[in-house]
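Work Package 4 report. The design task specified in the project plan requires that, given a folded chain encoded as structure tokens, an amino acid be chosen for each position. We show below one input record used in the internal validation round.
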């Protein structure tokens, strides 16, 4: 008998699993695909308050997100780090006084202690002005954070497992029924086809874009759809600028588009906001979206962004609570937790909406919602580090030097990538590796057999896509032959290593 069964292995589901397991609750999580294979790996990769949400008067959500920035930064400084954003002033769109007022609120709403404050800059003298068109002469600079979203999900799952949670990937919840004081949930392993029925005192529906599908097809409730699916798409191009700032561009349609340094050699541009009615599992960018993002960036950069430069795209579906009316960009990004006890029966908690930045607070509130049914213990995640994050916020360079010295076979770029991915757990991957042969087969782009074995054994990696696009972003650098060799190794070794 589990205390909590969770459907969905995105950031909300894994965050809840970690929180609950750390309170001593017996937890099982079922994810029908890979961890973070849906919305949670398709974000703009930011831990941020959401400057633009101030215009929609979402002060509570922005304040909570701003407070969470530094909590998350301290918990995982390997996958989360400070990033300065440059907002060029476009006089035809928003007056300077309005931007200054918004940034004043942004600086002071969330109790900022680590991140530097905002200020105005002269683009004719600042390095961030060089890539921009000459008509942009001043800008505002402020702080938020970068995050590797998919790794954030995986690290929550790793920590949940270490605290006793049962994490089942490639496992679909086929049905869930209330049965004599508990939930009976039928799970099907998508690789073997084997089925198992588990029992739980409570059920949490954290299926993201599939939350309504779980309610109607798995739980059997005849509910009116509650979520509004909004597609967000991104493009990746060869790097447009050669500094470490990001840009936030205003557009005539009142939307904003980010241009962010990405994986050293690239620039990430996004996102769009488009209502979506198709299968969330088949979401993809359209030519119209590619053209929109290129045009938005080209309004500001001296060198236009062109569709033929795009080297990679990704799209995700945001499961927002449907409040009716309004444009997609105006739909709230806040989360709503609804507890269904159906005339005193065992609880079902449904999760609507949410942001990467506030996943930890969402998890705390989700567990608190179940306090009437479970002995939940005290909240604990605010001061706890995620796996690999047990080093100072400013300790990245020191840890990188340590890893490089401990493994002479690594070049500087390789050591930096391992620390960015794994933090202090990079020590496990390079332990006693004094020469390149000690790292095993080289699959290309710095991916070693040691690293692949680690990912299969510790992070539920099964396929090359799991490794190349979610556990790392080496898919940007892999050629067809390298992927073929990785696929061959995985098909032969996954069962034995896992």
């Amino acid at each position: 008998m589990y205390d909590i069964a969770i459907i969905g292995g995105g950031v909300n589901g894994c965050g809840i699993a970690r929180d609950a397991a750390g309170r001593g609750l017996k937890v099982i999580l079922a994810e029908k695909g890979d961890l973070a294979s849906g919305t949670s790996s398709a974000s703009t990769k930011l831990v941020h308050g959401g400057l633009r949400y101030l215009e929609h008067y979402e002060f509570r959500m922005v304040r909570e997100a701003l407070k969470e920035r530094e909590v998350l930064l301290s918990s995982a400084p390997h996958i989360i780090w400070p990033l300065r954003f440059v907002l060029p002033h476009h006089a035809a769109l928003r007056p300077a006084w309005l931007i200054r007022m918004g940034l004043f609120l942004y600086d002071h709403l969330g109790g900022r202690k680590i991140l530097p404050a905002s200020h105005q800059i002269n683009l004719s003298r600042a390095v961030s002005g060089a890539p921009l068109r000459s008509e942009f002469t001043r800008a505002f600079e402020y702080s938020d954070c970068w995050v590797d979203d998919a790794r954030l999900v995986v690290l929550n799952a790793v920590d949940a497992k270490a605290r006793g949670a049962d994490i089942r990937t490639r496992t679909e919840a086929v049905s869930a029924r209330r049965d004599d004081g508990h939930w009976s949930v039928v799970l099907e392993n998508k690789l073997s086809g084997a089925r198992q029925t588990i029992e739980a005192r409570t059920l949490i529906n954290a299926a993201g874009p599939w939350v309504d599908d779980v309610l109607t097809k798995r739980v059997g409730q005849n509910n009116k759809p509650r979520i509004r699916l909004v597609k967000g798409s991104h493009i990746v191009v060869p790097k447009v600028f050669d500094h470490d700032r990001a840009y936030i561009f205003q557009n005539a349609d009142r939307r904003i588009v980010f241009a962010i340094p990405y994986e050293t050699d690239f620039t990430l541009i996004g996102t769009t906001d488009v209502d979506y009615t198709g299968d969330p599992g088949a979401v993809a960018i359209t030519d119209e979206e590619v053209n929109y993002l290129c045009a938005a960036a080209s309004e500001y950069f001296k060198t236009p962004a062109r569709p033929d430069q795009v080297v990679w795209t990704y799209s995700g579906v945001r499961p927002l609570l449907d409040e009716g009316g309004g444009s997609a960009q105006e739909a709230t990004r806040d989360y709503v937790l609804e507890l269904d006890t159906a005339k005193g029966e065992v609880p079902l908690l449904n999760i609507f909406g949410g942001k990467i930045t506030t996943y930890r607070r969402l998890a705390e509130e989700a567990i608190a919602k179940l306090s009437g049914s479970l002995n939940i213990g005290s909240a604990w995640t605010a001061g706890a580090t995620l796996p690999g994050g047990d080093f100072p916020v400013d300790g990245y360079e020191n840890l990188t030097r340590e890893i490089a010295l401990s493994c002479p076979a690594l070049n500087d770029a390789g050591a930096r990538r391992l620390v960015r991915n794994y933090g202090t757990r990079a020590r496990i991957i390079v332990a006693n590796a004094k020469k390149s042969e000690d790292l095993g087969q080289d699959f290309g782009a710095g991916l070693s057999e040691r690293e692949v074995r680690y990912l299969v054994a510790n992070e539920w990696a099964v396929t090359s896509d799991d490794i190349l696009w979610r556990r790392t972003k080496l898919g940007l650098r892999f050629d067809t032959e390298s992927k073929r060799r990785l696929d061959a190794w995985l098909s032969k070794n996954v069962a034995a290593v896992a």
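The mean pLDDT is 95. Validation will be extended to a larger panel in the next phase.
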